[in-house]
Amino acid sequence: MTENQTGTEKVQIVIPAEVGKIMSKWGGHSVRLAAARGALPMSGHNLVTVLFVFYHGENQELKEEALGTLQTLPAKILLAALSQNELHPSIIDFIVKLRYQDSVVMREAMSHRMIGIKSLLFLAENSSGDILDMLSHNDELLRKTDVMRTTIINNVHADKVMKLRLGWVEKVWQPKSKPADESQAEGETSEEGGSSDSLDDEDFDEESQSKYQQLQEMTTAVKIKMALTGDKEWRTLLIRESNKQVNTAVLKNPRISEGEVISVAKNRSSSDELIRIILLNRDWVKLYEMKKALAVHPRTPLQIAMRYMTFLSEKDIRELAKSRDVGQAIINNAKRMLMTKKR
User: Fold this and answer.
1) Which of 29, 189, 206, 265 is the most core-located residue (most Cβ within 10 A)?
2) 205 falls in which pLDDT band (50, 70, 90)?
């Protein structure tokens, strides 16, 4: 067991025997330096533990080397470390703060049973894209703390729809009230036709409500109807509904654009059912951007994903071969395709 200082708190870490040899005087500084550089054969869990201890130690050289190593470690090594059920929360926090832009690693970290609230709040404040979207849909987490909800709303990467769903109220500009005599003069009606500018209370209430506020009061049946017929703003709101009857109805809206559907395909949190509907539409899957999005989507069947990869440009295949955001099978297939082209 070793004790490390992280910020103002001391953390006790249980050191595996393999790590203990490196941490001891055995082998000297040169061996510990090699470990900090990730040059010694160790399991992912042990390597990350070593890097954590070195980073919070007193030796500046080891600290700098450990920091650089963790920032560039392949995702699969960090995933191996995160597969350990009893990984210390401080080590998870260490990974989160240095690799928060790596969505593959962060998805695993967020689902770890030992992740602490401070790590999740850090992600809520700094993350973007899929990770921020996953946090904003974690109802259990949002119920536990209002701070999480507020932090996501204040994140510069949170879009309007996400903020509205979390309870943010958009400030609407309202004109200053006019003097009573002026208002009365404008509101006067003729005996024959009445005022052409008047609105009854029901119309005013409906217009003054934001779409998001109206959504909270809708039944499922009304949501489905709106998904099938509503404008782009309604479609953007309703595609994020957890009820698959509602979100799939959006894809059946005759007014939906190809760009909107591509956005659904690019969203890695889109459900199996949404992806299935897209795959069944021949017009949509003819689009290059759609093939590219579906090829890397985690819910696209692997056989179909690999078929779509054959349509991608060499530049896109090269990017997939180096990507940290796709499965290993896609990476391996991309590498095979590049090797085949060289022959």
Assistant:
1) 265
2) very low
φ and ψ at residue 2, rounded to 5 degrees: -130, 155
Phi, psi of 10 (to 5 degrees): -95, 135
Tell me if 199 is assigned to some domain.
no
Nearest to 249 by CA among 205, 285, 218, 291: 218
Confidence of residue 26 (pLDDT cuts 50, 70, 90): low
Could you count the other beta carbons within 10 Å of the beta carbon of residue 105?
26
Q: How far apart are CA 256 and CA 99, in angstroms?
A: 36
Do 241 and 247 contact (CB within 8 A), yes or no?
yes
142: Cα separation from own chain's centroid: 15
C-alpha 224/C-alpha 245 separation (Å) is 7
Burial-class residue 98 by CB neighbours within 10 Å (0-12, 13-18, 19+).
middle
- Residue 267: what residue type? N
18 pLDDT band, cuts 50/70/90, is: low
251 shares its domain with 133: no
**Domain limits for position 18:** 2-165
Distances (CA, A) of 275 to 61, 108, 270: 49, 22, 7
State the Cα–Cα distance between residues 234 and 227, nearest whole angstrom.
Answer: 7
Distance, in Å, from the CA atom of 119 to the CA atom of 201, rounded to the nearest integer, reads: 47
Number of residues written out for the chain = 343
Task: Please tell me the distance from the alpha carbon of residue 17 to that of residue 143, in angstroms, as a whole number.
Answer: 41
- Tell me the average pLDDT of the chain: 82
Show the tokens assigned to 73: 């470690």
Residues 326, 305: contact at Cβ < 8 Å?
A: no
Whether residues 43 and 161 fall in one domain = yes
Average pLDDT over residues 217-237: 90
